[in-house]
Amino acid sequence: MLPIENLKRPDVRKIGVFDSGLGGLTVLQELLRNHPGHEYVYFGDTAHVPYGSRSAEDVIELVCEIAGYLVQQGCQGLILACNTSSALAISALRTTVDVPVLGVIGAAAREAAQVTSGCVAVLANPLTASSGVYGERIRLESKGLAKSLPRVVEIGCRDLVPIVEKGLLHTEESKHILEGYARTVLDAGADTMVLGCTHYPLLLPVLGPLLGEGVKIVNPATLMSDYLHPLEHQESPTVEFKVSGSPQEFSASASRILGWDIESRQVLLRRPTQTL
Predict the structure, then answer these.
(1) Cα gap 43→267, rounded to integer Å
(2) What percent of the chain has pLDDT over 90?
(3) Is the pLDDT of residue 273 over 50?
(4) Mean pLDDT computed over 200-211
(5) Alpha-carbon 217 to chain mean position
(6) CA angle 132, 134, 140 (to 5 degrees)
(7) Is 157 in the active site?
(8) What's the pLDDT at 274?
(9) 16, 103, 117, 217: most buried by Cβ count inside 10 Å?
(10) Which value, to the nearest 10 degrees, does the dihedral of the CA atoms of residues 39, 205, 221, 180 take?
(11) Domains of the chain from N-terminus onward
(12) How many whole angstroms separate alpha carbon 131 and alpha carbon 59?
């Protein structure tokens, strides 16, 4: 098993970034902005989104298969741009592939521990929230900083990923749903909120104003670039997009999010799609 720090090696040029769907594009955007010289392969497991409604065993099986595929494609490092995968599968993955693997939870927990004044709310998929991983990691990071342990409230959000995946952010129903989560965060007395799913930064145009200026927002997508080695020659980035579901649907949605036209190719996973 290779340590996380090896992702900073200058010879790690081709990087696989994967998520259950569109959410990992928020991570990819930051990587492209800060490390344009790398080669990237983005894999969206759109045939099985959302991971937060699946069993832990199911998620681990999916993630390990996708990781194996990305390594076969020449990726020298992997980024799990998915909180559920990072919570449930990263340990299994590090024993499965022979390249360094980086998840989003450690970086977000470290940032939350640094900026909180005493209470952190975490919005996450139900599976991530029920695992308790954020509370555990935030308290661990707080100990390392010699700070008093904050209260951590982990909130399972079953209905937020579909808002992003279906492009429904600016509907009255979505605003009503987001108002409910904002009230939960504020009623908990949280001074800091972690976006515990990489889909959730795409909700900020509506969610951010509902929270107000009194809540600091930790967005893991903006933190991942710190863990890559800056290449000496900053060339134009190359990105390949692979999906397990419909490439046409993904390409249309991803183009809208990224602001430029992309084309994706379907890769059929060996395991059958399960109906939820």
Answers:
(1) 9
(2) 79
(3) no
(4) 97
(5) 15
(6) 105
(7) no
(8) 47
(9) 16
(10) -140
(11) 4-103+223-266 (3.40.50.1860), 106-220 (3.40.50.1860)
(12) 13
Residue 156 has pLDDT above 60, yes or no: yes
Task: Output the six-digit token pair for 80.
Answer: 């799990």
The closest alpha carbon to 161, from 43, 41, 48, belongs to: 48
Burial class, 220, CB count within 10 angstroms (exposed 0-12 / middle 13-18 / buried 19+) = buried
**How many angstroms separate the CA atoms of 8 and 76, rounded?**
11
What is the token pair recorded at 38? 């790398």
Q: Residue 75 catalytic? A: no
> 12-56: per-residue pLDDT in tens?
889 999 999 999 999 999 999 998 889 999 999 999 988 887 888
Decide which of 249 and 272 is more confident: 249
* CA 90 distance to own-chain centroid: 13
Q: Which residues contact 83 (CB under 8 A, 6 or more apart)?
A: 104, 105, 124, 125, 128, 196, 197, 198, 220
Whether residue 50 is preceded by a cis peptide bond, meaning omega within 30 degrees of 0, is yes
- What is the rounded CA–CA span in Å between residue 21 and residue 46? 5
Average pLDDT in the chain:
91
Catalytic one of 64, 75, 82, 157: 82
Residue type, 88: L
As a whole number of angstroms, the longest Cα–Cα distance in the chain is 50
Question: Whole-prediction pTM value?
Answer: 0.88
Q: Which amino acid is at 79?
A: I
CB atoms within 10 A of CB 174: 20
Q: Where in the chain does DSSP place strands (E)?
A: 14-19, 39-44, 77-80, 101-103, 119-124, 151-156, 192-196, 216-218, 238-243, 264-266
Report yes or no: 96 and 65 within 8 Å, Cβ to Cβ. Answer: no
